[in-house]
From TrEMBL:
Organism, as annotated: Spirilliplanes yamanashiensis
Domain WCX: 243-311
InterPro entries cross-referenced by the UniProt entry: CBASS_pafABC_assoc_protein (IPR051534), PafC-like (IPR028349), PafC_HTH (IPR043839), WCX_dom (IPR057727), WYL_dom (IPR026881)
Full protein name: Protein pafC
Sequence ranges assigned to domain PafC HTH in this UniProt record: 11-124
Database matches in Pfam families: HTH_PafC (PF19187), WCX (PF25583), WYL (PF13280)
Superkingdom assignment: Bacteria
WYL domain boundaries: 146-211
Length: 322
């Protein structure tokens, strides 16, 4: 996509996000008057309205789509799909977005970096003094570490890693026989035979806290085979725990970011999704972070663990500070 086309798409998205609340506040407004207010041609506004008419959440049921009624040359929004006010970020939200974009801009291998930088510049400009807060985002070790690990792989040496495993929230030490370095979705990975688990593993470079190149040569066994990462790093298998959750409207994005085995409509606006997870401990932390918009339905072990942790949190809030 060219720079000009990318900018036009970004401008149109911003216009569409503000168009629904604008029309809600002016039911029955003439298309010509609205176009003049918004600084676009009548043809462009009609094209925007046609696009809005087919916008909705995955599944695209009639209760998810934006709806409108025309009376001659006048338009009225009859269903807003929850987009009932222009987007306004709180100071905390703006700062969080700035930090996230700065981190994304620093990440090696990210595609569309110019689009990230343009978005960051716009938000920093809108945030004003807040964007100048003393928050520095850098990933100083990633590029250098990626190069160092790649060099170690090329030299054919075994490595001793200090590695953080997010799924279990623990740091371990292990000796590995490197096989290759690869990039998947903008992240660097070391693929190696792990002597601790006697299997091929992918280690995210940004989670390698430290490593030492050993004198002995890397010697992955003949049975070691590289992973097929064409569809991503995580490959659900039948032996992994199956988690079932009920998702409210604001949490439906989970079904787009995580591979689900089934997604079906529940009561009202709820969706019920089932997905495989590598570790119930990770699932517990992730689902608790989503708040009350998500209800865990299974497995029973995960339900009990989340209920127990939630009870502990409530007890902590109920206990007066000493």
């Amino acid at each position: 996509m060219s720079t000009t086309a990318g900018r036009a798409s970004a401008d149109r998205l911003a216009r569409l996000l503000n168009l629904v609340p604008y029309l809600l506040a002016r039911p029955g407004i003439a298309v010509s008057e609205a176009a003049a207010d918004l600084g676009v041609t009548e043809r462009q506004l009609r094209e925007d309205l046609e696009l809005l008419w087919v916008c909705g959440l995955p599944g695209y049921g009639p209760g998810d789509l934006i709806d409108m009624a025309f009376d001659g040359d006048r338009v009225t929004i009859t269903y807003d799909a929850g987009i009932d006010r222009p987007l306004r970020l709180t100071p905390d939200e703006a700062l969080a977005l700035v930090v996230a974009l700065r981190m994304l801009a620093e990440m090696p291998g990210v595609g569309g970096r110019d689009a990230v930088e343009r978005a960051l510049a716009k938000i920093e400009n809108a945030a004003g003094d807040l964007a100048g807060a003393p928050v520095a985002v850098r990933l100083p070790g990633d590029d250098a570490r990626l190069a160092e690990i790649r060099a170690a792989v090329e030299r054919g040496r075994a490595l001793r890693l200090t590695y953080y495993t997010a799924a279990r929230d623990e740091t371990t030490e292990r000796v590995v026989d490197p096989m290759r370095v690869l990039m998947v979705a903008g992240r660097g990975y070391l693929e190696a035979w792990c002597r601790r688990v006697e299997a091929v593993r992918l280690f995210r470079v940004d989670r390698i806290d430290a490593f030492t190149e050993l004198a002995e040569p890397a010697a992955p066994p003949a049975a070691a085979r590289p992973h097929d990462v064409s569809a991503g790093v995580f490959r659900p298998t039948d032996d992994l725990p199956l988690v079932t959750v009920r998702l409210g409207r604001s949490s439906r994005w989970v079904t787009e970011y995580y591979p689900c085995e089934e997604v079906r409509r529940g009561a009202g606006d709820d969706w019920v999704a089932t997905l495989r997870v590598a570790d119930l401990g990770w699932a517990q932390r992730f689902l608790l972070s989503l708040g009350p918009d998500v209800t865990v339905l299974g497995p029973p072990e995960l339900v009990d663990r989340i209920r127990a942790q939630a009870a502990m949190a409530l007890d902590a809030y109920a206990t007066p500070a000493g």
